[in-house]
Amino acid sequence: HEDGVDHLHVRVSDGELSSEELVLKVTTEKPNEAPTLMTDDLDLRVGESVLASTIIQANDPDGDHITFKLWDSESDEKSGYLELDGQRLAAEKIHELTASEMARLKIVAGQHSHKNNFVVTASDGERLSDAVFAVETINNAPEAFMERGNIRLQFNESFKASEILKARDTEDQD
For the chain, what percent of residues have pLDDT higher than 90? Predict the structure, then answer.
């Protein structure tokens, strides 16, 4: 059996007499398998966030409870980060999360174009699986807009375009 119980019935004989039958119970257990862990890389625009579960999936073939460890490799304050229940998780530190916390974990884009690498580990208490995934923050295009509607001019009249036409860049470019 791969996983189950067998009974071995044993009787010995000297050719004339036989012993009483002994029953040996043999239990075999399937070895514990490591959780499976799947991740994808992700592109986010500045200001976007998604639940981590959209790119991180884990399953334990034995049905064991899974816990997670995450590591954010980028400590730049303007880089992307992990967020749990509205709180930014510190970079360059291992964070241990339950499956319930993992379901609430968000990945938040940085404030400028940048690529972050994250490491995730899924554990069933005995075995583990690791994966690395990247989140790239994509620069948004600047926006042009009119602060007021069209204007009407008389011949030889002028105006300052900066009073009507405006532009903004959503990223903090410092």
Answer: 59
Q: In Å, how far are 10, 30, 60, 112, 127 from 2, measured between CA atoms?
A: 22, 6, 18, 54, 20
User: What residues pair up with 18 in beta bridges, in sequence order?
Assistant: 13
pLDDT of residue 1: 46
What residue spans of the chain are helical by DSSP H? 99-104
Distances in whole angstroms, Cα of residue 45 to Cα of each of 9, 53, 89, 171:
69, 18, 20, 10
Question: What's the CA gap between 77 and 112, in Å, rounded?
Answer: 11
Residue 68 class from Cβ within 10 Å (0-12 exposed, 13-18 middle, 19+ buried)? Answer: buried
Q: What is the pTM for the complete model shown? A: 0.68
3-class state of residue 147 by DSSP: coil
For residue 123, what pLDDT band results from cuts at 50, 70 and 90? very high
